[in-house]
Amino acid sequence: MKFSIQRALSYHDQVHHYLKDMIIKGEYQPGERIYEAKIARELQVSRSPVREAIRTLEQEGLLLIDDKSRITVYEPTIKDLEDIYQCRQALESLAVALATRLAANETLELIAETLREANHQFEIQSCGSANALLHLNTKFHDLIIEASENIRLQKQLLDLRSLTFFYRSKNLEKRERSFDIISQHEEIFRHIQERNETKAAESMKRHIEADLDYLKTVLFPSFTENP
């Protein structure tokens, strides 16, 4: 991957973005060990912004640092996947119920526009569509979470944000799966428009359960084949 440092942003932010992108895209494999000095040489920066970026990614859960200061890329486990998605189910079901009650018409239009753009990207299948769908998927959930107006809930989901994005990227690798996700989002939005809190929450719960089931088959096929 070609990458060059820009002076407009802090080195820390740029290195953080670069490393996160490498992890999400699988350029750094789960469990792979990475080295501060090597990254600094590759990006032609000092080790200080690299160290800061690594600390940030450790806080986000995408990098692990052991007691011997060895740095490795987050490696999914079925238990961690289940824990994260159980939290998401509980929190985002509540978020969508609150959003259904509280969201202004302007917010509903933003969600509708996000769905329209997702359908457009799905139909045109351009070289950037997969990445666009990933970000539109995230935006759909973010708009609902923000519309809940529950700051405590938002903070708890923020703690899971980077790992959620990591798993979401694996969830959208196949075209047929993207179609299912868009359809589920449209169902959730329909209930929001109807101001039906119960059905919106139930749809969100099923949607996240479907994500979990799919990710298990993708990331842990031997486990799902031989439970």
UniProtKB/TrEMBL annotation:
Annotated CDD domains: WHTH_GntR
UniProt-recorded Gene Ontology molecular function terms: DNA binding; DNA-binding transcription factor activity
Coiled coil: none
Pfam families in the record: FCD, GntR
Annotated HTH gntR-type domain residues: 9-76
InterPro entries for the chain: GntR_C, TF_FadR/GntR_C, Tscrpt_reg_HTH_GntR, WH-like_DNA-bd_sf, WH_DNA-bd_sf
Keywords linked to the UniProt accession: DNA-binding, Transcription, Transcription regulation
Name of protein: GntR family transcriptional regulator
Organism in which the protein naturally occurs: Bacillus swezeyi
